[in-house]
Every structure is written in C-alpha cells, then in structure tokens.
Amino acid sequence: MTTSAWDERAEAYRVSATHATGVDLDLLVDFCEPGPGKDALDVATGGGHVARRLREAGCRVTTCDPSPGMQADVLCWAEDMPFADGSFDAVANRFAAHHFSDVHVAVAEMARVSRGPVVVVDMNYADEAVERAELLRDPGHVKTYSEAEWREIFAAAGLTVADFRLVPRGYPLEDWLARTGCVGEEAAAVRRELAHVTDAEGVWHGDVVVIKGVKR
Ligand SMILES: C[S@@+](CC[C@H](N)C(=O)[O-])C[C@H]1O[C@@H](n2cnc3c(N)ncnc32)[C@H](O)[C@@H]1O
C-alpha cells in the first residue's frame, strides 16, 4: 500500500467544503460525547476537519493518518495503530473506511484503543453503478458498506450499535472529480455511471452512514 496519491491531494482535502461541514459531522461530534479533558482519536484525519470540531468541543485530540501529506500527529494505518488498549475516551473515523484494505481489522483496532464510543461516518452502499464510479474516480476505493454490513462489522469488533443514522448528502460532481484529479475519459465514464443519482445542478446524491458503537 502507498500513500503518494493522498499526499498529492492533501491540500484539496484541507480546503474541501464537503469535508469541512455537514449534518454527518455534527452528529459524529455529538456521538463522541465530547467535553473538556476528554481524549479523542481522529483516525484517517485527512484535512483534519473532525479533529478541529472535536477540539472546539473541548477534547484533547490525537490525529493519525498513513499519508505524510496530511500532517497527522501519528503516521499509521487504521488496521495497525500504535496506541495502547483503551487509550481514548472516543475514537472517530470519517469518510475513509471505504479505502481500508481490511475494514474488520480497522474497526477492531478502533474498538481496542477506545474506552468509550467508536463513531464511524462513511458513504452508504447505494448500488453497483455508484461503486464503479467510485473506483474509476479513485483506484484506492475498496468498497462501501450497507447498514447490515456495518452492523456485522461492529458486532465482530465487539461493539454494540448504540445509534445508527442515514443522512442524505449531495456532492458537487465536478469538485468531487477534481479532488482526485479524475479527468478525460475516466471522468466521462464516472458522469455516466452517476447519471441516475445526479440532479440538474450537477450535484450527485447519496446517503451517509453515521454509526456509534459502544463496547459490550
Ligand atoms: C477523504 S480523507 C479523510 C477525510 C477526513 N476524515 C474528514 O472527515 O475530513 C481519507 C483519508 O484516509 C486515509 N487512509 C486511506 N487508507 C487508510 C487506511 N488503511 N488507514 C488509515 N487511513 C487511511 C488517507 O490517507 C486520507 O487522509
């Protein structure tokens, strides 16, 4: 596995309006039960938007990401994190699980290092056309998961699902393509695959999963 593609895109994620805001981000912060003196971990921090919001809510936040360009506190993969068991009051992860090579191992790692909630936000599985579009736009895409799959992944990690929400979101298609440098024939193919979920303003729509797990 390599992070060079992520290193090149780091600035695009730091300034991305899609990542900086959203009902899913508000819910994630709420589900983390933040507060002064609490220690939180932001896994796959990317442009750091989750970390910023958790800090604003009073937490001490540690960030981790395997891409040096993302400038996280700790360089590591979600599947293998160098933190002791129960190190954090809350562990959060947003818009990254669909890139994980082994999501079961990653969520088990998040459960291991948390002594409180584990909160994951990611795109909900829609259909195979959307999956093909995701992969064309970014060869680092592995898979998005349905509600049933998320519940199984959390259960396998020893987590009880305390809350599960589906939040509708829209992604301006051209900005979304530009973030990963997807142009030409590939971008045209992505537009075709997403035509059934794209509106007249060029925004494509899909649900976002917000899931809170607590240790059994
Ligand atoms: C879309 S960005 C994350 C966005 C950020 N969490 C937010 O909400 O703004 C995806 C991040 O996942 C990271 N990533 C990719 N594969 C990973 C893995 N296996 N473990 C941890 N992080 C990974 C990338 O380096 C990248 O920074």
Q: Please tally the helical runs, counting DSSP H or I stretches of 4 or more residues.
A: 9
Shape assignment: globular
Note the run of SSEs as H and E.
Answer: HHHEHEEEHEHHEHHE
Q: Give the CATH level 1 class.
A: Alpha Beta
Q: What is the second-level CATH architecture?
A: 3-Layer(aba) Sandwich
Task: Report, as a whole number of angstroms, the end-to-end distance.
Answer: 33 Å
Determine the mean pLDDT: 97
Structural class: alpha/beta
CATH superfamily: Vaccinia Virus protein VP39
| Radius of gyration (Å) | 16 Å
> How helical, in percent, are the residues?
25-40%
CATH topology: Rossmann fold
**Number of self-contained structural domains:** 1
Query: What is the percentage of strand-forming residues?
Result: 15-25%
Summarize the structure.
The chain is an alpha/beta fold and 216 residues long. The protein is built from nine helices and seven strands. The protein has one domain (4-126, 140-169, 207-215): Vaccinia Virus protein VP39 (Rossmann fold, 3-Layer(aba) Sandwich).
Overall description:
There is one protein chain. With 216 residues, this protein is of the alpha/beta class. The chain has one domain: Rossmann fold. The protein is built from nine helices and seven strands, in the order αααβαβββαβααβααβ. The protein has a seven-stranded mixed β-sheet, sandwiched between helices. α6 packs antiparallel against α9. The protein is globular and about 50 Å long. The two termini are 33 Å apart. It binds S-adenosylmethionine. The site of S-adenosylmethionine (SAM) has 23 residues, from α1 and α4.
